[in-house]
Design a protein that fits this description.
This protein folds into two domains: about 180 residues, Hypothetical protein af1432 (Orthogonal Bundle), CATH 1.10.3210; about 130 residues, Growth Hormone, Chain: A (Up-down Bundle), CATH 1.20.1250. The two termini are about 35 Å apart. By secondary structure, the protein is of the alpha+beta class. The strands form two sheets. The chain has a four-stranded mixed sheet. A three-stranded antiparallel sheet has the order 3-7-4, with helices on both faces.
Amino acid sequence: MGFSYIVYPGAHHTRFHHALGAMFLMQKAVQVLQSKGVAISIKEEEALYIAILLHDIGHGPFSHAMENSIVENISHEQISLLFMENLNQKFNKQLTLAIKIFKDEHPRKFLHQLVSGQLDMDRLDYLKRDSFYTGVPEGTVNAQRLVTMLNVKDDKLVVEEKGIYSVENFLVARRLMYWQVYLHKTGIVAEQLLVRVLKRAKQLTAQGVDLPASDNLTFFLNNTINLNGFSDEVLEKFSSLDDYDIISGMKMWAGNDDFVLGNLSRMLLNRDLLKVKVKSEPFTTAKVKEKRSKLEEKYHISEDEASFFVFTGKLENQAYSMEKDTINLLKKSGKVIDVAKASDQLNLEALSKSVVKYYLCYPKNNTISHRG
């Protein structure tokens, strides 16, 4: 959940909770499908549980922030796969089938859809769980009913026709949860600040500044790690890195003489964040430059330093994609149809359009302390 707890104080649940919940739903899904005559072998069943249990293991501290700061352009899915392959060596190739399913290389495609699709056990668990812990009722989905409505037709996962309203609710809930929770502007600005804290810490370390930090965090500050450099040793260090390393690092850096690192760390620790404006059109370069120039003059800092406090970005929300791996309904006649075309209550095709909003972050008055 990253920094969602700044907005929703109850959102302190972990990915461990989510992984267990997703595996529980997978067990239910396997039982339902087997009861409807879908053949799933013991080995396939075990592989599904392994794949869903490990699907998020590549996430670092504070979730997605790590993909753009501690490591260089590596997605959590790629790191999850590295963990799986590492474990596969330790467990005498017993994860081989799970990895094939995870990578969608297994001939029975519906197995991958259960792990990673538009109506997978991952989404069914996190929507309901995050709705519960944040107290945002719009995200509530009837996960158990959706699971009981699952079936397989022509090797593809389908939902029985009578489950259409539960699917509609699921897609609307997903859209609302993204705007209200996952893409909430306060959580986004906090995540962006953390990305910049770590970026600045890496810059200073590269310049020879000795920053206090845990051994594992120090390793990533000192080294530029991309996908090719992710050895077993790096994987071990990454697995030992958690939220506490980052927070303790920021607590030590809050008193640092560096204008950028000190201020950014204090902002996050004190929850005194940047102001954020959101609109449907991109902010002009002139507007950003104007905000940065004011900051440069007021605090006598460089344009590069000012860019840590004034920046833009975009938020994208697409609840459903009609291009890839659609959610299909199985009609009583045996015909299979895309849920967006079958829906009579809501125009689900509208939810398939990507909605983009743009944000501009800049300091409030008196948020920043003068250098020294």
